[in-house]
Amino acid sequence: MSANLVLVVVVGVLFAAGVYLLLERSLTRVLVGVILIGNGVNTLFMVASGPAGRAPIVGQGDVDDMSDPLPQALVLTAIVITLGVTAFLLAMAYRAWQLNGHDDVQDDVEDAAIRRRAERDEVSSSYDDSAGGTMDEEGSDDAAESSEAAAAGVGPEGERR
């Protein structure tokens, strides 16, 4: 028995759109991406479970005609997990909106210090030669770098204080 091709394409589109939205910096788009992936997982479980059958009650019908209850239980579990993650992301986006007036995720101070350190190290795997040896749009200032490194608790040689 083959799966319905339309449902397989729908699962692929839901996963592709969800992953694309997860890679955005806005928490609202990440939330929509999580919801799309959750719906894609639920549809995938239903496609993989096979055709519909009779109720899985022993003694009520032929065993070959019964539907498998495991995919249905997995879908119910996935719905609950998606609901919990959605509630968490909604709360996080709302709090970010209250504090900053937007829900974009900002770069971490330590990430910026590591990026600047990698820019100076041409052997590093994160060095970007196509951008003229820089990964930032702004130039790196040694005074600003040392103050940010001190704020992050990193010493002059890169060890933690």
From TrEMBL:
It comes from Jiangella aurantiaca. This is Na(+)/H(+) antiporter subunit C. Residues 116-161 are annotated as: Disordered. It is found in: Cell membrane. Residues 135-145 have a biased composition (Acidic residues). The keyword Cell membrane applies. GO terms for cellular component: plasma membrane. InterPro entries: CPA3_antiporter_subunitC, NUOK/Mnh_C1-like. It is a multi-pass membrane protein.
